């Protein structure tokens, strides 16, 4: 399958661009298992695209660099439209059915791509360069391994056809990932300002209390006492999966989701 790299350069996104919101929203959807929004993306390939081609979204520029998303082309190349820079020039777009989307901080980093797939140019000058055929398989497996290492969340494959019982081979690999450096201090801050208990269920076991962002870190939510609450690991996970919602004053289960409570103390 022909595979292309589409590029995004957040440092060049114009003021007021919808792209940061799009990327954050897609990442939230992916993390919570919701369907991703199909969208257009600019490409400069000279060859012309064909529906069904595999694409990765490669982030370049001054921040984290690497792949944050993947999908398949829903269309071939269409007529050029106004350039995303908004400078009056034209650009070519393709329609993409995205199947995975990460926050920019969770990229599969470019150095790892260079190591795994050395034939391909990983700092392309424009959107729509090809992944060299010899690299296609290595890129796809590095990407799937990266998604899996970040888990939970849908990781490719068809969730409606689970593997057979004896189908899962034990496999291990070393995974490097970006970790939010401020998380520990954020927790300390919350422990100073709030009772040491889960803001949802009241469980007061220090070892399982975590700092939860009310507005997600990936959406620009800050590690402040206003934007944070202590939650047990269980309910933190439930909140991130949107099984719990924050009303502004308290957490409540969303649309009747059954949210597990700890067993009552004896
Ligand atoms: Zn709890």
Report on this structure:
- It contains five helices and twelve strands.
- The chain folds into two domains: 3-150, Roll (ph1033 like fold), CATH 3.10.590; 183-253, no CATH class.
- The chain is 20% helix and 22% strand.
- The longest helix is centred in the middle third of the chain and has 15 residues, at 136-150.
- Residues 198, 200-201, 203, 231-232, 234-235 line the site of zinc ion.
- As a percent range, the share of strand residues is 15-25%
Rg, rounded, reads 21 Å
Distinct small molecules bound, one entry per kind: zinc ion
Give me the count of strands: 12
Low-pLDDT stretches: 153-159
CATH architecture field of the largest domain: Roll
Counting DSSP H or I runs of 4 or more residues, the number of helices is 5
CATH class call of the largest domain: Alpha Beta
Instruction: Examine the coordinates and then state which fold CATH places here, giving the name of the CATH topology of the largest domain.
Output: ph1033 like fold
Order of helices and strands: EHEEEEEEHEHHEEHEE
End-to-end Cα distance: 60 Å
Tell me, briefly, the overall form: globular
Biggest sheet layout: 8 strands, mixed
Name the structural class.
Answer: alpha+beta
């Amino acid at each position: 399958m022909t595979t292309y790299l589409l590029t995004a350069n957040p440092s060049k996104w114009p003021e007021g661009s919808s792209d940061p919101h799009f990327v954050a929203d897609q990442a939230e959807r992916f993390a919570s298992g919701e369907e991703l929004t199909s969208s257009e993306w600019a490409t400069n390939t000279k060859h012309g695209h064909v529906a069904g081609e595999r694409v990765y979204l490669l982030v370049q520029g001054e921040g984290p660099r690497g792949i944050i998303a993947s999908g398949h082309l829903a269309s071939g190349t269409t007529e050029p439209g106004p350039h995303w820079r908004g400078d009056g020039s034209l650009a070519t777009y393709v329609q993409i059915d995205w199947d995975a989307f990460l926050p920019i901080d969770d990229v599969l980093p470019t150095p790892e791509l260079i190591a795994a797939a050395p034939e391909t140019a990983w700092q392309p000058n424009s959107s729509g360069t090809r992944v060299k055929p010899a690299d296609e398989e290595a890129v796809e497996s590095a990407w799937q391994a990266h998604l899996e290492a970040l888990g939970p969340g849908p990781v490719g494959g068809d969730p409606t056809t689970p593997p057979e019982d004896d189908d899962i081979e034990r496999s291990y690999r070393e995974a490097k990932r970006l970790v939010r450096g401020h998380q520990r201090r954020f927790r300390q801050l919350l422990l100073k300002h709030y009772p040491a208990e889960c803001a949802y269920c009241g469980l007061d076991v220090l070892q399982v209390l975590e700092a939860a962002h009310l507005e997600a870190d990936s959406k620009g939510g800050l590690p402040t006492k206003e934007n944070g609450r202590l939650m047990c690991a269980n309910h933190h996970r439930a909140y991130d999966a949107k099984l719990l919602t924050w009303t502004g004053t308290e957490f409540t289960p969303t649309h009747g989701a059954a949210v597990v409570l700890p067993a009552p103390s004896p």
